[in-house]
Amino acid sequence: MKKIIHTLKAPAPIGPYSQAVLSGNTLYTSGQIALNPETMELVLDDIKTETKQVMENMKAVLAAADMTFENVIKTSIFISDMHNFSQINEVYATYFDEATAPARETVEVANLPKFVNVEISMIAVK
Q1: Phi and psi torsions of 49, nearest 5°
Q2: Which one, of 43, 66, 38, lies nearest residue 55 by Cα?
Q3: Which InterPro entries does this chain map to (predicted)?
Q4: How many angstroms separate the CA atoms of 64 and 10, rounded?
């Protein structure tokens, strides 16, 4: 049985998908981009600010499922320019304990929704 997870503290979906789906004890999040959930405007000041907004959006989705970054077992990071990797990684690292960090892949892609620079999705387990 699946449970749809929704919070007003993260951006509303901009298409036919849910912010996250809980199946049993496993949470599958949709990708988050740097949309401010209150204004639905993009936060693109610089790559670090953009990444922080993405992570804060993800934090809100996890919280809506009664989880934290400690529950995350896998992340997928999609970036439009691999030259931004170190700055994205610097912000991303502040949300995880390196000793227990989740598995991860980082992939450079041609384009992302709304032509943002970074999108992140996660899988978490209670």
Answers
A1: -65, -40
A2: 43
A3: RidA, RutC-like_sf, YjgF/YER057c/UK114
A4: 9
Task: Specify the number of domains making up the chain.
Answer: 1
Name the pLDDT band for 1 (thresholds 50, 70, 90).
confident
* Residue span of the structural domain in which 45 resides: 2-125
Contact between 74 and 120 under an 8 Å Cβ cutoff? The reply is no
- Is the separation of the CB atoms in 59 and 92 below 8 Å? no
CA 23 to chain centre: 18
Q: Is the pTM of this model over 0.90?
A: yes
Output the DSSP codes for 61-99.
HHHHTT--GGGEEEEEEEES-GGGHHHHHHHHHTTS-GG
Per DSSP, the three-state class of 13 is coil
Residue 13 is part of a domain; what is its CATH number? Answer: 3.30.1330.40
42 pLDDT tier (thresholds 50, 70, 90):
very high
Using alpha carbons, select from 23, 14, 7 the residue that is nearest to residue 64.
7
